[in-house]
């Protein structure tokens, strides 16, 4: 099995996906172990001094002015985990929790948190054992990090609370640790706090959403091209020289993708036939502009994610004297800071939800056009075999419209909200976790919306072929792959739900892109 080595300088999106979704093992590098030990020396030295140090010998948040005696500090660290594990609601998905834990481990390994190497190793062991802490939907305000979700993960390291085993069964964490030979950690100064203070949950969901949306934008370029083809539109609007004079990168990529999908089609260019059109409707003609603007938003999201993946997010943080010269000597300091604030991540999560909603909206408009006999340029009403006796895809478009409406509601930004907490000490929060949760719902909805357009567009292309027109090779490849996947054409004696669900899986699993790329070569 693939192993991801966690070092001192951050991680990559590919590594997050490997651990979260593919179950990759994790391993601490020797440099990370050394950095952990060096930072711990600094914390131990400060803990031995009589002066209070935030996070080491004081309370937290609004209680930071309370100096804690040495005999109570271990209890303090246990108690902060227990008291902060106050999440409620449904269990968060396994992949999200694994990403959350892996990204917290990434920050621990940076050598800026002050935890002992054995704490980081225990987190790696839990990940490698396939143990997934039970984390709840609600509890994070995205400031001071994802406190409640991370606290539920820290409980598992302590052998407390519930967790899901590799078999998917939820059991007491202590039982699962014992079954895998993992000793619960006994937290010391700074360690409980260090396990809780990070943007790891929202960042993990951002990384996975970016991966999913990148694939969906390519799928949407394909379905937009198929709809243009089925509507007998013109591909002249996709000419590279037109997009070169408005040089938004994403727009050029989407136009090039669509043009390659349409290569060799005998359906395009009929807009001047029996019912001549000067130009196609916006939902067809402006597909590269809308899809491309979303692609550019993805590019900004990747930039922010990459910066955050390279960050050490904690409060307080351990800083070595000078640069690395204090490592191993116990020299350095612990400083309070605001790097845990989730605003940079929260903003892009909201931006992505807006772009995804608009992509869903324009996609639905093309589907509606395919089904309307007054605008489809010769296709039967609702693409039905016998309109009136058969409603065709009428209600499939209803389902698509309901999903679009949901996405529009989810596009309302979470990051503009802030509810003060901790007795007004934390008086401005990011709501980044909430932004991430709603984006996950939007991504799922968008895949279904694209799947409905694919179903309608391929049906329409088949009807054009029955008229004697010649679809392009990419369209035929998509149709053939759909049929091979068990997605059948509509009929008056069949109900559509299983086919639409199978079409959704066909899109989400990358089969549409793979089928088309077998003809076109790699799409961007």
Low-pLDDT runs of 5+ residues are: 323-329
The overall average pLDDT, rounded, is: 93
- What level of helicity do the residues show? 40-55%
Oligomer: single chain
Shape: elongated
- Give the radius of gyration: 27 Å
Number of helices: 19
Strand content: 5-15%
Give a short account of the largest sheet: 3 strands, antiparallel
Question: How many E strands?
Answer: 9
Separation, N- and C-terminal Cα atoms: 29 Å
Order of helices and strands: EHEHHEHHEEHEEHHHHHHHEEHHHHHH
How do the strands line up in the largest sheet? 4-6-7
Structural class: mainly alpha
Subcellular location: Cytoplasm
Organism: Streptomyces argenteolus
Family: Belongs to the PAL/histidase family.
Modified residues (2,3-didehydroalanine (Ser)): 144
Question: What would the keywords be for this entry?
Answer:
single chain, 524 residues, mainly alpha, 3-stranded antiparallel sheet, two-stranded parallel sheet, 19 helices, Histidine ammonia-lyase
